[in-house]
From TrEMBL:
<dbReference type="InterPro" id="IPR001034">
    <property type="entry name" value="DeoR_HTH"/>
</dbReference>
<dbReference type="GO" id="GO:0003677">
    <property type="term" value="F:DNA binding"/>
</dbReference>
<feature type="domain" description="HTH deoR-type">
    <location>
        <begin position="18"/>
        <end position="72"/>
    </location>
</feature>
<dbReference type="InterPro" id="IPR014036">
    <property type="entry name" value="DeoR-like_C"/>
</dbReference>
<protein>
    <submittedName>
        <fullName>DeoR/GlpR family transcriptional regulator of sugar metabolism</fullName>
    </submittedName>
</protein>
<dbReference type="InterPro" id="IPR036388">
    <property type="entry name" value="WH-like_DNA-bd_sf"/>
</dbReference>
<keyword id="KW-0804">Transcription</keyword>
<dbReference type="Pfam" id="PF00455">
    <property type="entry name" value="DeoRC"/>
</dbReference>
<dbReference type="InterPro" id="IPR050313">
    <property type="entry name" value="Carb_Metab_HTH_regulators"/>
</dbReference>
<dbReference type="InterPro" id="IPR036390">
    <property type="entry name" value="WH_DNA-bd_sf"/>
</dbReference>
<keyword id="KW-0805">Transcription regulation</keyword>
<dbReference type="InterPro" id="IPR037171">
    <property type="entry name" value="NagB/RpiA_transferase-like"/>
</dbReference>
<keyword id="KW-0238">DNA-binding</keyword>
<dbReference type="Pfam" id="PF08220">
    <property type="entry name" value="HTH_DeoR"/>
</dbReference>
<dbReference type="InterPro" id="IPR018356">
    <property type="entry name" value="Tscrpt_reg_HTH_DeoR_CS"/>
</dbReference>
<dbReference type="GO" id="GO:0003700">
    <property type="term" value="F:DNA-binding transcription factor activity"/>
</dbReference>
Length: 266
């Protein structure tokens, strides 16, 4: 008797095959292979399939396209905060609105720096009885005029592009608190490795914040759910939560398989 394969199972197998092919394609690009025809021959697929795959990988920032081929993504360059607040704004606003619902009454929270956490700060204004420990100068200034919120700034060196505080002073302050929820912004996120940042000091302060929280919540729009070339990474505690606008189960199931609680606003 032949086992029947459902359409859902077939679709899942198809997605897994596509993902495996993309990973193999990235490996080839990192070793210097770049021509479409050569990549097609090595992978045993058509040139048109390679072109489609390259277009997808380029769209998510994993590679850089060139005439007749592609190369692995260039070194990561962090955007200025003033530029980031305009990118994927509707997605970030929806993520922030959903994240605000995760804050218990009377909670003490950690609020990270960055554009999506800045959106969350807007949803917090006017709340009563919560304490916000933050490394974001922008969020601290905004929330300071909200009468029902106690605002505490970590201190530390100011990161130029994110306006976030980092270094020994920030680490010292975080080590003196235990917060109910830590909300982290990211430049990239990975289901196993955690959150990616442009510098090790910023990655370290996120790791400390996550370690000093009862619940860690990562706010990441769909464009952040790919490693790209982000260099520094901070591991997260087991059972962390991802709030994202991504809806593709091919992507989200990678996180669920690692024990991540996924909340999709899509």
């Amino acid at each position: 008797m032949t086992a029947r394969v459902s359409k859902a199972d077939a679709a899942t197998d198809y997605r897994r095959g596509t993902l495996a092919r993309h990973e193999r394609l990235l490996e080839l690009l990192r070793t210097g292979s770049s021509g479409v025809d050569g990549l097609a021959a090595t992978l045993g697929i058509s040139s048109s399939t390679v072109r489609r795959d390259l277009a997808h990988l380029s769209a998510i920032g994993a590679i850089t396209r060139s005439y007749g081929g592609a190369s692995a993504a260039a070194p990561f360059q962090e955007r200025e905060l003033s530029e980031r607040v305009t990118v994927e704004h509707p997605a970030k606003a929806a993520i922030a609105a959903r994240a605000a619902e995760l804050i218990p009454a009377g909670a003490t929270i950690f609020l990270d720096a960055g554009s999506t956490c800045g959106e969350l700060a807007r949803h917090l204004w006017g709340r009563e009885g919560i304490t916000v420990l933050t490394r974001s100068l922008d969020a601290a200034t905004f929330l300071a005029s909200s009468p029902g919120i106690e605002v505490i700034v970590t201190g530390g060196k100011v990161a130029r592009t994110s306006h976030g505080l980092e270094g020994p002073l920030a680490d010292f302050a975080l080590g003196r608190y235990m917060v109910d929820v830590a909300f982290l912004g990211v430049d990239a996120v990975d289901p196993a490795d955690g959150v990616g940042e442009p510098t090790l000091p910023e990655a370290h302060v996120k790791e400390t914040a996550a370690r000093r929280s009862r619940r860690t919540v990562v706010l990441a729009d769909a464009t952040k759910l790919h490693r790209g070339s982000v260099p520094a990474w901070a591991p997260l505690p087991a059972g962390w939560t991802l709030v994202t606008n991504e809806v593709d189960d091919l992507v989200l199931n990678l996180y669920r398989a690692e024990g991540v609680d996924v909340i999709s606003t899509g």
